[in-house]
Amino acid sequence: MATTALPIVQGTDPSRCVLDAFRTAIAKRVADALPPLTVEQVYAGVDYGKKGVDFTVALPRFRLPGKVDELAKKVLDNFQPDEWVEAVVHDKAFLHFTCATSGLTRLVLDQVHALTNDTPEPEYGSNTTGRGKRIVIEYSSPNIAKSFHVGHLRSTIIGAFLANLYKASGWEVISMNYLGDWGTQFGLIAVGFEKYGSREALEQDAIKHLFDVYVKVNADADKDPAVKVEAAAFFKRMEDGDEDALKDWRVWRDLSIRKYEGEYARLNVHFDVYTGESRVSKESMDNALAQLDEMGLIEDEEGAKRVNLEKYKLGKAVVRKKDGTSIYLTRDIGGAIERYEKYKFDKMIYVVSSQQDMHLSQFFKVLKLMGYEWADHLEHVNYGLVLGMSTRKGTVVFLDQIIREATSVMHEHMKGNEDKYSSIEDPEATSQEIGITGIKIQDMAAKRINNYTFNWDRMLSFEGDTGPYLQYAHVRLCSISRKNPELFPLPPRSQIDTTLLVEPAARDIVFLLGSYPDVVKVALRTHEPSGVVTFAFRLSHAISAAWETVIVKGEADIEKARARMWMYLCARDVLGAAMRLLSITPLERM
Ligand code: ARG
Predict the structure, then answer these.
(1) Distance from the alpha carbon of residue 179 to the mean position of ligand 1, in angstroms
(2) pTM for this prediction
(3) 368-305-371 Cα angle (round to 5)
(4) What stretch or stretches form a coiled coil here (predicted)?
(5) DSSP code of 118?
């Protein structure tokens, strides 16, 4: 195909996002017709169009002299279709552009294919904007003995997505789990363990057992203040490094981590570093406090030390208790400093519930006041609550119970179709993956900050925009090659005649495929997984809409059947890429 040389617009990369080239072509036309506009200036104003329109330019944004109608006329007067742009329509203040279909189809499918199959690493949709940069992403960070249940599920799911997203954008990613493994509550558990603990129960399920002990001793402490005093004394011994006081705690920590690792593996989530509040050194906290003191930011409050952040509407925050023991906030301050020293990150993200907005603002501010330049590169990615998280019978649960229950519902469902069931190698693993997909999609479907209600029926349904539906859409795309073996091997892609893909439903698919690299970029800017989820469903719907008209099986023209087959394979690859970005493993059969 003859391609007119296009100017290069800064920040675009047509070798990974071919729609960049189409946008550049549109920008060039407008700029040529409307001097003194530059291609760059117009490019920034080439937006995706609404329904049925590829790209739209809103003329008023350029603040040119003259009426919009006259400006539009100048663009339309000169218009000649070429291999990039097929048509332009003037509508009030807008110009709507249609990409030339044959070039679009050829270039998009070529690019999807090449970046999926012909290069070892960069998957289609990835970009290089983070090359040479390093990011620490802290997520999940459950407490090994407090509220063990699934409150941290969102941090885990969103964090895993962000880690994938930054990797796909060329960043070096260090994913970190900062366990809540330190603090007064461990004194409390130690006291409780003497009374209620059992080594056996601990071995069996450390997280659950420690939680039970915690609940019981907490109830005791509510009734009897002496329990709290005892707990504080115990924690003080731990802080002072008393080996006897630390022995049990070590076992709890190890067993909890082992248990969590199993769950993370099932969720397809991985950490480069397991650290925790206990790992923040006394030294770094002492130094930080001394420095704050010197700067006159510390107030004494009956022996406790506080940093006054009222000027910034962030209240007064205790940084050291009266008995000299550390607290959550101080550990975060010391921890961040240590992390910077160790990783020299360009950016660090904390994926933590919006309930801790104040806490994060406080310690970011303290670091900033201490003069650390990198404090500007800390970011809190927050999220709303999960309401009504319980088993179907209504009891509060731990993460593993949720996974087990989702798995068994899906397993029962699969058994309903005996033929299919027998063709699946590992039905248990398959149903677990579908169940987990249901949980994840429900979690990432809306904006992070929204609360949502955990809804079993909706989450595990095959109807509507659910996880199981998404897996089904992918499986269906995989089955089409199994069902049409006579079309394989496909000819080399240059010999596949893409001009045979003339149906509007095929074009819709192609255009969506082309937009995927932009979906990734937007997610990187907003830290929202929901855009990727929406994309995956739009693509699934477009495929489903094409299914009846753009057929493969039963298409008499073999060239046509092959072109369609190729398009569906590309669609499968992109849908799979989007699912993987969301930390979901796309299934081939179910
Ligand atoms: N373990 C904490 C909790 O469950 C979350 C930790 C968030 N991260 C941080 N650096 N403070 O509440």
Answers:
(1) 7
(2) 0.94
(3) 15
(4) none
(5) I
